[in-house]
Amino acid sequence: MMPLILDAATVQQKLALLPLVTYGAGETVVTEGTRTGRLLILKTGAVSIVKGDTEIARVTEPGAMFGELSVLLDQPHTADVRAVETSQFHVADAAALLTQDPVTPLYVAAILARRLDATNRALVELKHQLQTGQPQSVIERTVGRIEELLSVSGASLVYAGYPTDPFA
After folding, report:
1. How far apart are CA 38 and CA 29, in angstroms?
2. Residues 8-17: what's their mean pLDDT?
3. How far is Cα 118 from Cα 168, in angstroms, rounded to an integer?
4. Under 8 Å CB-to-CB from 64, ≥6 apart: which residues?
5. Can you tell me the mean pLDDT for 142-168?
6. CATH pick for 8-151 out of 3.30.750.24, 3.30.420.270, 3.30.230.10, 2.60.120.10
7. What is the CB neighbour count within 10 angstroms for residue 113?
8. Over the stretch 115-147, which tens digit does the pLDDT of each residue have?
9. What is the Cα 84 distance to its own chain's centre?
């Protein structure tokens, strides 16, 4: 079967042409409850995903995308993204980027599909752990993985190479 995204290098080249924005440690990149209409793709650095007062994930993977769900679902951002260290992002007007050619929406769809697949696998694992009476610490680690999967599109196809498993 032929993959939908034939040339990841082409997507990578397109992303590399996008403007760069830099955030310093402690700066908020995305604010929960706002609408930016932007897609941000992590080039370098580290960010924290915060929901309310709780950090639910740390992301350091180049190519991780932020803002895609807000744009695709036409809703405000659901969490804060804060730079943990100086971080650079490629930034794009989401509507323009997603309508220019069919490759970019396929790229975003593939990232979201991989995230859903990984979340489904982790949920099955969690159910198995609960049924077999696994220790609380094991269950908590699995819940943490599920939280991370649901909070960020870190399974980059471009930077990490397709296909990848973020929790292998």
Report:
1. 11
2. 76
3. 10
4. 41, 42, 152, 153, 154, 156
5. 53
6. 2.60.120.10
7. 12
8. 888 888 988 999 999 999 999 999 988 888 887
9. 16
> Cβ(24)–Cβ(88) under 8 Å?
no
Give the DSSP letter of residue 165.
Answer: -
Which residue reads 């697949």 in tokens?
117
**Sequence ranges of the domains in the chain:** 8-151
Express as a percent the part of the chain with pLDDT over 90.
39
Tokens of 148: 């991370």
* DSSP one-letter string for 105-159: HHHHHHHHHHHHHHHHHHHHHHHHHHHTT--HHHHHHHHHHHHHHHH-B---STT
Give residue-wise pLDDT tens across range 51-90: 888 888 888 988 888 998 888 889 999 889 999 999 999 9
Query: Residue 145 is encoded by which pair of tokens?
Result: 């993985």
- Taking the model in full, what pTM does it have? 0.77
